[in-house]
Amino acid sequence: MTPLAGVIAARIRAGGPISLAEYMRLCLMDSRHGYYATRDPFGAAGDFTTAPEIHQMFGEICGLALAQAWLDQGAPTPFHLVEPGPGRGTLMADMLRAAARVPGLHDAARVALIEASPHLRKVQQDRLGQVRHIESIKDVRDNPLFLMANEFIDALPIRQYQMTPEGWRERLVGLEGDALRIGLGPIVPMHRPGQPGDIIEECPEGAAFVEALARRIAAQGGAAIIVDYGGWNGYGDTFQALRNHAPEDPFAQPGLADLTAHVDFAALAAAVLRGGAVVSRPVRQGHWLCALGIEARAQRLAQAGDAGAMAALRRLTDPAEMGHLFKAIAIWPQGAPPVPGFVPLEAHADDA
């Protein structure tokens, strides 16, 4: 039993089973034993590798896409350039380096990172210098907001519901002896179709974040690109743990493994529309990167002596690697040009 497992077990004994969302929040962000609060999980020496850590090309494409969106909206000065869940700061560093080619952008940008982990804040400062850290987008008031989020929504707490012959019940984390186990709570009122055994997932924090982001962009200008892995309807049990680059039982070692779930892009799109902004169709990561020129960039880097450029290209874009599982959506104000590589969502969009 890990130290955090003991804390969670004691809480369950005192107050009863907890939601999966509360379990994820404790496992990832507990101030003493939480996964992100205590370690750098990225890269070959960690538990997983994100697209920015694979190669600089990913961050370059993201940075130039937002830079073009900034230009298309009249190059407003100043503006906020924000990244939530910035990891080691690699993506922001690559974005800023690429965007330095755009006259006036560096002077206009007010960079801010949304990061809850004190440990990762220190890592980001080592990479980027004395960068500003904020708690939420509410902390950057006024002026247009341009935001890049990569593998941020998937780590936000989810709730799960399972259809039974009596109706939908929330899946809760309880105890079987001393072991943490998933079980079913009381019937909850939900108006979604399902057959017994079906599971649906909801991410209230993700939807709230995106709706607030859309309201801000609709009112004051800007744009956002959100890249993550997931699908279009939220059905199925996608809750998972990853440790040492391999899957693990999510309840086996709380606090020592990363916990995530697939993103429901349909729910995010609905949140954007509630916020009054334009949302794009989801596009596969590989398609989006190729549409914006990553293949030509990889070839140039390879010719210049970058031995890993072509392998990184495959990993980022190939359907068998990250190319299809990972998807991207963009947000922009009504009346503004689309963010490069995206088209507005149609009334009956299907999975990208």
Walk me through the topology.
Blueprint: H1 3-15, E1 18-19, H2 20-29, H3 35-38, H4 51-54, H5 56-72, E2 79-84, H6 90-99, H7 105-108, E3 109-114, H8 118-128, E4 132-134, E5 145-150, E6 159-164, E7 167-176, E8 179-187, E9 199-202, H9 204-220, E10 222-231, E11 240-243, E12 246-248, E13 258-260, E14 263-264, H10 265-274, E15 278-279, E16 283-284, H11 285-291, H12 294-303, H13 309-317, E17 326-332
Parallel strand pairs: 2-3, 2-5, 3-4, 5-10, 10-14
Antiparallel strand pairs: 1-7, 6-7, 6-9, 7-8, 10-17, 11-12, 11-13, 15-17, 16-17
Helix pairs in contact: 5-6, 9-10, 12-13
User: What kind of sheet is the major sheet?
Assistant: 9 strands, mixed
Low-confidence stretches: 347-352
What's the total number of strands? 17
Helix fraction? 25-40%
Decide which structural class fits the backbone.
alpha/beta
**What percent strand?**
15-25%
Distance between the termini: 41 Å
Indicate the radius of gyration in whole angstroms: 21 Å
The ordered H/E elements are HEHHHHEHHEHEEEEEEHEEEEEHEEHHHE
Number of helices: 13
How would you describe this protein?
- The protein has 352 residues and is α/β, with parallel strands linked by helices.
- It has helices at 3-15, 20-29, 35-38, 51-54, 56-72, 90-99, 105-108, 118-128, 204-220, 265-274, 285-291, 294-303, 309-317, and strands at residues 18-19, 79-84, 109-114, 132-134, 145-150, 159-164, 167-176, 179-187, 199-202, 222-231, 240-243, 246-248, 258-260, 263-264, 278-279, 283-284, 326-332.
- It is built from 13 helices and 17 strands.
- Helix 5 (56-72) packs across helix 6 (90-99), helix 9 packs parallel to helix 10 (265-274) and helix 12 (294-303) packs antiparallel against helix 13.
- The longest helix is centred in the first third of the chain and has 17 residues, at 56-72.
- The chain starts with a helix and ends in a 20-residue tail after the last strand.
- Mean pLDDT is 92; it is low at 347-352.
